[in-house]
């Protein structure tokens, strides 16, 4: 791992120049990632080049690696979007970030100037919101990565963190407290922020509320942590993997339901357990049948279902419009409704203070060279977050 002093010393040598470094390149869907030398161009106007020190793997990376839909089939590509690092250099016009800053890349950017960013009703951005179709930089429509012989390598989710150096739009770079552990802070780029934010910002879980979480990967367990921090009275976890209950208990889950053990629909079990249904349900599985169960598990009159899972199939929602006349609501959330640049630093401070225990989510640590092993751990359901050190 490079130290801050080493990076400071190298800035004069690399600023404004092409950097050659190691990156994990995906050449085609489902093929093993290849660690190889790539060229990383200097940042252009309103861009930032970062030295990545830690990165981890999310199910969204896994879906892109599989090529699950047309929008994710730009290859060769450098995946990765959960990371932390140190700024190596900045492009023209970047004023809020400087060389040496400790930063987190975010896939859902915030320019601060558009109508979306100025609105309190959304955390989307007109130009830098999450966009799986985007594979090049905004300023010139080109990539900043290339092979040693000049072949372009495409970007991913505004970030591309499976590389020792990466270039991002400054709108997708969040400055954090230099005293924070970069290893832990890397988790805030996606899953943990999305899950906790869904509980805090989207649902606004109140003390004494009842919650049901469908799908207990890192995303669902982050929801549990957020609900626990808000004082939820019952946090019900639903998963077909019984081992999830053990981990879930450490993060605040009070009840566990394995659908395989039931002879009736899950929502009927939850309604009986909670006297009519939970106040909030969270769908973290990316499964439409599960989404229907999550919706029906909420209490009529006021229940709310929040969709967090990614749904790659063309199937439509299995709900009839008249079902909303019972007072139940349903909504989705992007990045837990956090505005990345303005609100994430405060969330990072809360995590430093122990409001959310990030250590609970790091189940494995490996060197970057073993990234394919880390992917396999996620595929097999053995890891929540495997942090890779570059």
UniProtKB/TrEMBL annotation:
<dbReference type="GO" id="GO:0046294">
    <property type="term" value="P:formaldehyde catabolic process"/>
</dbReference>
<dbReference type="InterPro" id="IPR011032">
    <property type="entry name" value="GroES-like_sf"/>
</dbReference>
<dbReference type="InterPro" id="IPR013154">
    <property type="entry name" value="ADH-like_N"/>
</dbReference>
<dbReference type="InterPro" id="IPR013149">
    <property type="entry name" value="ADH-like_C"/>
</dbReference>
<dbReference type="Pfam" id="PF08240">
    <property type="entry name" value="ADH_N"/>
</dbReference>
<feature type="domain" description="Alcohol dehydrogenase-like C-terminal">
    <location>
        <begin position="218"/>
        <end position="344"/>
    </location>
</feature>
<dbReference type="GO" id="GO:0005829">
    <property type="term" value="C:cytosol"/>
</dbReference>
<feature type="domain" description="Alcohol dehydrogenase-like N-terminal">
    <location>
        <begin position="45"/>
        <end position="176"/>
    </location>
</feature>
<protein>
    <recommendedName>
        <fullName>Alcohol dehydrogenase</fullName>
    </recommendedName>
</protein>
<keyword id="KW-0520">NAD</keyword>
<dbReference type="Pfam" id="PF00107">
    <property type="entry name" value="ADH_zinc_N"/>
</dbReference>
<dbReference type="GO" id="GO:0008270">
    <property type="term" value="F:zinc ion binding"/>
</dbReference>
<dbReference type="GO" id="GO:0051903">
    <property type="term" value="F:S-(hydroxymethyl)glutathione dehydrogenase [NAD(P)+] activity"/>
</dbReference>
<dbReference type="InterPro" id="IPR002328">
    <property type="entry name" value="ADH_Zn_CS"/>
</dbReference>
<comment type="similarity">
    <text>Belongs to the zinc-containing alcohol dehydrogenase family. Class-III subfamily.</text>
</comment>
<keyword id="KW-0560">Oxidoreductase</keyword>
<dbReference type="InterPro" id="IPR036291">
    <property type="entry name" value="NAD(P)-bd_dom_sf"/>
</dbReference>
<keyword id="KW-0479">Metal-binding</keyword>
<comment type="subunit">
    <text>Homodimer.</text>
</comment>
<keyword id="KW-0862">Zinc</keyword>
């Amino acid at each position: 791992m490079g130290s801050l002093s080493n990076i400071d010393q190298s800035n004069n040598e690399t600023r404004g120049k092409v950097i050659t470094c190691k990156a994990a390149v995906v050449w085609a869907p489902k093929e093993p990632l290849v660690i190889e030398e790539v060229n990383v161009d200097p940042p252009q106007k309103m861009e930032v080049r970062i030295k990545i020190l830690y990165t981890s793997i999310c199910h969204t990376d896994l879906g892109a690696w599989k090529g699950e839909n047309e929008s994710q089939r730009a290859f060769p590509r450098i995946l990765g979007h959960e990371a932390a690092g140190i700024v190596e250099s900045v492009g023209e016009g970047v004023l809020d970030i400087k060389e040496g800053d400790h930063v987190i890349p975010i896939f859902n950017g915030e320019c601060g100037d558009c109508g979306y960013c100025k609105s309190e009703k959304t955390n989307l951005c007109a130009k830098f919101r999450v966009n799986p179709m985007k594979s090049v930089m905004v300023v010139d429509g080109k990539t900043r990565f290339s092979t040693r012989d000049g072949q372009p390598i495409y970007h991913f989710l505004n970030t591309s963190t499976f590389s020792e150096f990466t270039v991002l739009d400054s709108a997708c770079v969040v400055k954090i407290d230099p005293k924070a552990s970069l290893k832990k802070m890397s988790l805030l780029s996606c899953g943990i922020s999305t899950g906790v934010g869904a509980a805090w910002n989207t649902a606004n879980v109140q003390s004494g509320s009842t919650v049901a979480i469908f799908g207990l990967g890192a995303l669902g367990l982050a929801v549990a942590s957020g609900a626990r921090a808000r004082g939820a009275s019952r946090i019900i976890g639903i998963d077909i993997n019984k081992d999830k209950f053990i981990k879930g208990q450490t993060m605040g889950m009070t009840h566990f339901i394995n659908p395989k053990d039931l002879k009736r629909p899950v929502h009927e079990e939850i309604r009986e357990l909670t006297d009519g249904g939970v106040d909030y349900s969270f769908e973290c599985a990316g499964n439409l049948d599960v989404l229907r169960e999550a919706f029906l598990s909420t209490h009529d009159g006021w229940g709310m279902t929040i969709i967090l899972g990614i749904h790659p199939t063309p199937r439509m929602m299995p709900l009839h419009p008249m079902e909303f006349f019972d007072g139940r609501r349903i909504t989705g959330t992007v990045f837990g409704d956090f505005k990345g640049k303005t609100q994430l630093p405060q969330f990072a401070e809360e995590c430093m203070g122990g409001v959310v225990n990030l250590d609970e989510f790091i189940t494995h640590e490996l060197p970057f060279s073993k990234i394919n092993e880390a992917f396999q751990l996620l595929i097999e359901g053995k890891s929540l977050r495997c942090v890779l050190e570059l």
